[in-house]
C-alpha cells in the first residue's frame, strides 16, 4: 500500500520509512511560526518549562510575525508586541518582523509564503489555526496551541497523530467568475465543517494545478473550516518557481503514491460550478449566490489571509473600476508587500489602490484587521447589527466583532459585485 | 487527574466555536499575571448568543456579570465543540472559570489537543447526545477512571468513551511531563 504526501512527510521527520494513519509519532519540526496573540503566552510557557534563560532550540527555525492586533491603541495589545520584541532581542532571532519598522509584514500565513519559509516536503507548525495555509506548497503544516508551540520552541519536537486523507479532485477549466474561494466553500458545504476532522485534505486535479500559488493558498487556508488537520497540494513547477525566487534553502518534495489509501474521494467538475456564499453563522452554511441574491447588506470587507492577497484585489478591482460602492467597503491588504503591489500594479492606467479609492472604499493597513473582530478600535470591526459580505474565512457569531452582526463569506468577485449594488450580487451579472 | 469530578452542568448546543468560548477582544490579557488571568474566567463562554447560554432555557451566563468564577463545573455540549481558532485561551478560560471537564459528542481537534496538552480540562466524548438528557444546573458526577457519568438526582448513568491515547498525557499532567517521560525533555 502506498502512502499519501502527508504520511511521507511525517514519516521522514519521524526518521521512519513509513507511518500509518492513527499512529501517534514524535516528529522534528522544520519551522515554528507564532504571532502577537499567541506568541507572548507561548513565550511565558517556554520560560516556565525550560527556564528564564533557556535557549530556543533553533533560532533560524522560529518565525515571529505580529499581525493580529497591530493598529490599535489597546494597551494590552501593545504590550504583547513589546514582549515579542524583547524576546527576539534576547535570543537574537533572525526572523522577527517588528511592527513599526520596514520589516513589518502583516498576516503571518501570507508573509510565510512571501519570505520563502514555505518549502515543499517540510513540516511547519504555527500557533494559528490557519497555519494549514502553507500546505499549498506541498508541505505539512498545521495549527497548535501555545503549550505545543512552547514544547517545540524548547525541543524542536512534537507528537502528532498521523491523519487519514480526504481527497478532493477538481477537473475542468475554471470559468472567469469563479475563484478558489468558491471551490473551498463548496467543499466545506459538502462535507460539513466537521467532515474533515482529524483528516488531511489533499486537493488534486488539473483545475487545482491551473491555479496560481495564491489561489491554492485560499484552498488550503480553509481546510480547517472543514475541521481538517492540514490541507495539502502537491508541489509542481509553479511551486518550485515561487519558492526558488524567495529562498536558497534546499527542499526535498514528496508526492502521494498512486496506490495511497484515501478515506474518501470527491471529484468536482469546476466548469459547471456556481459562485457560492457561506451564510451566517457557519462556514458550511452554503448557498449559491443566485439563491441569496438581493439580500440587503450594510457593509463589505475585502481582506485577511484568505481574501486579502494581491490576486484577490486584482479580481475585486476588475469589478470596482469605474464604479462606486453603495455600502461601506473596507479594504485591508494581507501584507505590506500586497499594499506595495497595489500601488504598483495598474488596471487600465490606474493603480489598483486608486481603483479602490475612486470607488469609495475605506483603505486599511496590512494586518488581520477585523477578520477576527479584535480590540474595539479595530478598523472595519462590526459594532452593531451590520450585515456584512466578506472575503474572510469565518462567520461564527461575533467573529468580526459584534455578536449581533451577520457575516456572509464569499469570493472577492462576489464581494465586489455586492459592494457596488448594496445587495448580494452574482458576479456573473456584472462580468458577462 | 482527578478521580471524581462533581458539580453543576452547563449545557450547550453544537459547534460552539472558540470565539464563543472566549471572544477575540479579550485575548489581550496576560495568561499569567494573576489580576489579568482571572479575566479569562470572567469572559469564559461570554461569546454565546444569549438564547444559547445554558440550555434548554438559555439566558444563563456561564459566569455572572462582574464575577470571575462560574458555578458550573462540567460543560455538556453537542458535536464539534471548540471549532475555529487555535487559541489555547479557550480551554484555559474554561479552567480559570472553574470547569473541570467538558463532555461533548465530538471535538474540533486543536481544542481537544490544547485541552489535553496544556492539562487544562478533561475532554470526554459521549456517543449519546447528553445535551438532550441533561439540563443546565443539574448535578453531575463523573468517575474519571471508570468513564462513567451519573446524573445525581435522577440516578441515571451513562458510559463515556474511553480516553484512549490521551490518557497517558492526562495522567502525566501535561505534554511537558509526557515529553519528559518519553525522553525528549529534561
Ligand atoms: S487574517 Fe483572519 S484568519 Fe487569517 S490569520 Fe488573521 S485573524 Fe486569522
Order of helices and strands of chain B: EHHHEHEHEEEEHH
In total, how many beta strands of chain A?
Answer: 19
Number of helices of chain A: 16
Strand content of chain B: 15-25%
Radius of gyration of chain A: 21 Å
Percent of residues in beta strands of chain A: 15-25%
Task: Give the SSE layout.
The complex is a heterodimer of chains A (432) and B (186).
Chain A lengths: L4 H9 L10 E5 L2 E4 L4 H12 L11 E3 L10 H16 L17 H7 L8 E4 L13 E4 L2 H10 L1 E5 L3 E7 L8 H12 L8 E5 L1 H5 L2 H9 L8 E4 L3 H8 L19 E6 L6 E3 L7 E3 H4 L6 E5 H4 L2 H11 L7 E5 L3 H9 L1 E2 L2 E2 H7 L3 E2 L23 E4 L15 E4 L2 H10 L5 H5 L1
Parallel strand pairs in A: 2-3, 2-4, 4-5, 7-8, 7-10, 8-9, 13-14, 13-18, 14-17, 18-19
Antiparallel strand pairs in A: 1-6, 11-12, 15-16
Chain B lengths: L3 E8 L6 H4 L12 H4 L1 H5 L28 E6 L11 H9 L3 E4 L4 H9 L4 E4 L13 E5 L4 E4 L4 E4 L7 H6 L2 H8 L4
Parallel strand pairs in B: 1-2, 2-3, 3-4
Antiparallel strand pairs in B: 1-5, 5-6, 6-7
The site of iron/sulfur cluster has 12 residues of chain A, from helix 11.
How would you describe this structure to a colleague?
The complex is a heterodimer of chains A (432) and B (186). Chain A has 432 residues and is of the alpha/beta class. In chain A, 32% of the residues lie in helices and 18% in strands. Chain A is built from 16 helices and 19 strands. In chain A, strands 17-14-13-18-19 form a 5-stranded parallel beta sheet. A 4-stranded parallel beta sheet of chain A has the order 3-2-4-5. Chain A has a 4-stranded parallel beta sheet with strand order 9-8-7-10. In chain A, α2 (39-50) links the parallel β2 and β3 (62-64). In chain A, α2 packs across α5 (146-155) and α12 runs parallel beside α15. Chain A is globular. Chain B has 186 residues and is α/β, with parallel strands linked by helices. Chain B is built from 7 helices and 7 strands, in the order βαααβαβαββββαα. In chain B, strands 4-3-2-1-5-6-7 form a 7-stranded mixed beta sheet. In chain B, β5 (139-143) and β6 (148-151) form a beta hairpin. The model of chain B has no long low-confidence stretch (mean pLDDT 96). At the A-B interface, α2, α3, α5 and β6 of A face α5 and α7 of B. Iron/sulfur cluster is lined by residues 68, 107, 109, 128, 130, 304-305, 368, 371-372, 392-393 of chain A.
Amino acid at each position: 500500500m502506498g502512502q499519501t504526501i502527508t504520511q511521507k512527510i511525517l514519516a521522514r521527520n519521524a526518521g521512519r520509512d513509513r507511518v500509518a494513519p492513527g499512529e501517534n509519532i514524535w516528529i522534528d519540526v522544520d519551522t515554528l511560526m507564532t504571532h502577537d496573540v499567541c506568541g507572548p503566552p507561548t513565550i511565558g510557557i517556554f520560560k516556565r518549562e525550560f527556564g528564564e534563560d533557556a535557549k530556543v532550540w533553533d533560532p533560524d527555525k522560529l518565525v515571529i510575525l505580529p499581525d493580529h492586533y497591530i493598529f490599535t491603541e489597546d494597551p494590552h495589545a501593545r504590550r504583547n508586541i513589546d514582549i515579542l520584541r524583547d524576546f527576539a532581542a534576547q535570543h537574537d532571532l533572525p526572523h522577527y518582523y517588528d511592527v513599526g519598522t520596514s520589516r513589518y509584514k502583516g498576516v503571518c500565513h501570507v508573509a510565510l509564503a512571501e519570505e520563502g519559509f514555505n518549502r515543499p516536503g517540510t513540516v511547519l507548525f504555527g500557533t494559528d489555526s490557519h497555519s494549514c495555509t502553507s500546505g499549498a506548497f506541498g508541505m505539512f503544516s498545521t495549527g497548535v496551541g501555545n503549550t505545543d508551540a512552547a514544547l517545540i520552541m524548547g525541543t524542536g519536537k512534537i507528537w502528532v497523530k498521523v491523519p487519514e486523507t480526504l481527497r478532493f479532485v477538481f477537473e475542468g477549466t475554471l470559468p472567469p467568475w469563479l475563484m478558489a474561494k468558491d471551490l473551498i466553500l463548496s467543499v466545506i458545504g459538502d462535507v460539513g465543517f466537521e467532515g474533515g476532522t482529524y483528516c488531511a485534505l489533499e486537493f488534486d486535479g488539473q483545475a487545482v494545478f491551473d491555479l496560481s500559488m495564491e489561489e491554492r493558498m485560499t484552498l488550503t487556508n480553509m481546510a480547517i473550516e472543514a475541521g481538517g488537520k492540514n490541507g495539502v497540494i502537491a508541489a509542481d513547477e509553479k511551486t518550485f518557481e515561487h519558492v526558488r525566487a524567495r529562498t536558497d534553502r534546499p527542499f526535498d518534495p514528496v508526492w502521494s503514491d498512486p496506490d495511497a489509501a484515501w478515506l474518501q474521494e470527491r471529484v468536482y467538475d469546476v466548469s459547471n460550478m456556481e459562485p457560492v456564499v457561506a451564510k451566517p453563522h457557519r462556514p458550511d452554511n452554503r448557498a449559491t449566490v443566485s439563491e441569496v441574491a438581493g439580500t440587503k447588506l450594510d457593509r463589505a470587507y475585502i481582506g485577511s489571509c484568505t481574501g486579502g492577497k494581491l490576486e484577490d484585489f486584482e479580481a475585486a478591482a476588475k469589478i470596482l473600476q469605474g464604479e462606486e460602492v453603495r455600502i461601506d467597503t473596507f479594504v485591508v491588504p494581507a501584507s505590506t508587500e500586497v499594499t506595495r503591489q497595489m500601488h504598483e500594479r495598474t488596471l487600465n492606467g490606474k493603480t489598483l489602490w486608486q481603483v479602490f479609492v475612486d470607488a469609495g472604499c475605506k483603505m486599511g493597513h496590512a494586518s488581520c484587521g477585523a477578520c477576527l473582530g479584535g480590540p474595539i478600535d479595530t478598523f472595519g470591526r462590526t459594532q452593531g447589527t451590520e450585515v456584512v459580505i466578506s472575503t474572510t474565512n469565518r462567520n461564527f457569531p461575533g467573529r468580526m466583532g459584534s455578536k449581533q452582526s451577520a457575516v456572509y463569506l464569499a469570493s472577492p468577485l462576489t464581494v465586489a459585485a455586492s459592494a457596488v449594488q448594496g445587495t448580494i450580487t452574482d458576479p456573473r451579472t456584472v462580468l458577462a | 487527574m482527578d478521580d471524581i469530578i462533581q458539580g453543576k452542568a452547563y449545557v450547550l448546543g453544537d459547534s460552539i466555536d472558540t470565539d464563543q468560548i472566549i471572544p477575540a477582544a479579550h485575548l489581550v490579557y496576560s495568561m499569567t499575571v494573576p489580576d489579568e488571568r482571572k479575566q479569562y474566567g470572567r469572559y469564559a463562554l461570554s461569546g454565546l448568543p444569549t438564547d444559547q447560554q445554558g440550555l434548554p432555557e438559555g439566558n444563563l451566563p456561564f459566569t455572572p456579570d462582574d464575577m470571575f468564577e462560574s458555578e458550573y463545573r462540567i460543560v455538556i455540549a453537542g458535536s464539534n465543540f471548540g471549532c475555529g481558532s487555535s487559541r489555547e485561551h479557550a480551554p484555559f478560560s474554561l479552567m480559570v472559570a472553574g470547569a473541570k471537564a467538558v463532555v461533548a459528542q465530538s471535538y474540533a481537534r486543536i481544542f481537544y489537543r490544547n485541552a489535553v496538552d496544556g492539562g487544562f480540562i478533561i475532554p470526554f466524548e459521549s456517543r449519546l447526545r447528553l445535551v438532550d438528557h441533561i439540563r443546565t444546573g443539574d448535578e453531575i458526577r463523573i468517575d474519571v477512571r471508570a468513564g462513567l457519568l451519573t446524573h445525581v438526582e435522577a440516578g441515571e448513568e451513562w458510559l463515556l468513551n474511553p480516553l484512549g491515547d490521551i490518557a497517558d498525557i492526562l495522567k502525566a499532567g501535561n505534554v511537558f511531563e509526557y515529553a519528559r517521560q518519553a525522553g525528549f525533555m529534561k
